[in-house]
């Protein structure tokens, strides 16, 4: 029978934690396979899982391997995604095709939150969500992340949206899609590599407990959209806006010159900015993603301590 159960493989550690209502944090795999170079990507993936475990939370990195959805990966599977070659970038619209054709794919924010929700996980951490690209008025390049955030009740922890995007347009789109946007200990919407974007977040929470309370209320009201927590990169790791903006402009110019379109745009830009910054942007990307995994773990703990 072609049912969900046949397509889903939940790692025993994750299955055990979920059945006992112990905290589980979902992590994505596109950031590993398409967002960072090898071997920094596998080091990051392992560090993120270790950090989450240190907080008493079970990490569940999500991917599709040989046509099967995996919720929680072992070290061999992580290595395959980080250094395997032939790893598709799977957004929510690509999941069924990847399964039917028995492909191996790394899941984006949109695909990961869809699958995490199916598995009964409430909290997810990434680096930065996708959004509305600059010049979207002519290219129409808008990430599926926004659509899936509009219809998945989940806490999503990110460092804002990637600075390569159009931040004000992304904020408008988040509003149009009924996504709750919350600054963590800040009123400023963070810009991924830098702490400030010049734009305000909508709401503010100062503690993981406040965020957990907000989400419980969100669910009690039957709301089906995500709560997006924007967590600024730590000060010691940020790249000042005026510095990163120069690299972004060069990368964007090369992207349009080479006529790169569709799902390869974001990986191309991230890679180019790593080159232009001599690896500085990679260090910042790793630091902010680990910082998000830590906050995600803290929120998950608070959620699990609350009454259902
Ligand atoms: N955050 C990072 N690096 C990444 C991504 C997020 O720090 O590579 C990935 C996520 O998987 C996100 C995707 O869903 O980039 C957005 O891609 P697109 O712009 O094609 O929708
Ligand atoms: Mn796109």
How would you describe what is shown here?
Helix content is 47%, strand content 14%. Strands 1, 2, 3, 4, 5, 6, 7, 8, 9, 10 and 11 form an eleven-stranded mixed β-sheet that branches. Helix 6 (95-100) links the parallel strand 5 and strand 6 (105-107). The protein has one domain: Indigoidine synthase fold. The chain is of the alpha/beta class and 308 residues long. It is globular. The protein contains 14 helices and eleven strands. Manganese (II) ion is lined by residues 141, 143, 263, 265.
**What's the CATH architecture?**
3-Layer(aba) Sandwich
Mean pLDDT: 97
- Binned strand content: 5-15%
Q: Name the poorly predicted regions.
A: none
Q: What ligand species are in this complex?
A: pseudouridine-5'-monophosphate, manganese (II) ion
CATH class, anyone?
Alpha Beta
In total, the number of strands is: 11
Distance between the termini: 33 Å
- In CATH, the topology is named Indigoidine synthase fold
User: Structural class, from helix and strand content?
Assistant: alpha/beta
CATH homolog superfamily: Indigoidine synthase domain
- How many H/I helices? 14
- Please summarize the sheet with the most strands: 11 strands, mixed
Counting structural domains, the number is 1
N-to-C series of helices and strands = HEHEHHEEHEHEHEHHEHEEHEHHH
Shape: globular
> What portion of residues is helical?
40-55%
Radius of gyration over all CA atoms, rounded: 18 Å
């Amino acid at each position: 029978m072609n049912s969900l159960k046949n397509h889903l493989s939940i790692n025993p550690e994750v299955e055990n934690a979920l059945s006992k209502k112990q905290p589980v944090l979902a992590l994505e795999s596109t950031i590993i396979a398409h967002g960072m170079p090898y071997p920094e990507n596998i080091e990051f993936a392992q560090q993120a899982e270790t950090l989450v475990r240190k907080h008493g939370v079970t990490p569940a990195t999500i991917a599709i391997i040989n046509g099967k959805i995996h919720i929680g990966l072992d070290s061999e599977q992580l290595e395959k995604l980080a250094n395997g070659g032939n790893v598709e970038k799977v957004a929510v619209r690509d999941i069924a095709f990847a399964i039917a054709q028995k492909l191996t794919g790394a899941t984006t924010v949109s695909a990961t939150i869809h699958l995490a929700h199916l598995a009964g996980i409430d909290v997810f951490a990434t680096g930065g969500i996708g959004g509305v690209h600059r010049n979207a008025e002519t290219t129409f390049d808008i990430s599926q992340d926004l659509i899936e955030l509009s219809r998945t009740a989940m806490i999503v922890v990110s460092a804002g949206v990637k600075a390569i995007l159009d931040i004000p347009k992304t904020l408008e789109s988040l509003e149009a899609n009924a996504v709750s946007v919350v600054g963590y200990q800040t009123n400023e919407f963070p810009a991924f590599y830098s702490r400030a974007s010049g734009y305000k977040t909508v709401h503010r929470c100062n503690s993981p407990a406040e965020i957990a309370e907000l989400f419980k209320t969100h669910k009690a009201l039957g709301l089906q959209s995500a709560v997006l927590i924007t967590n600024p990169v730590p000060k010691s790791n940020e790249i000042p806006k005026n510095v990163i903006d120069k690299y972004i402009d060069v990368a964007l110019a090369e992207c349009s010159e080479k006529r790169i379109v569709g799902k390869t745009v974001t990986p191309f830009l991230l890679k180019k900015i790593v080159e232009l910054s001599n690896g500085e942007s990679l260090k910042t990307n790793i630091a902010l993603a680990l910082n998000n995994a830590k906050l995600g773990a803290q929120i998950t703990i608070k959620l699990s301590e609350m009454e259902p």
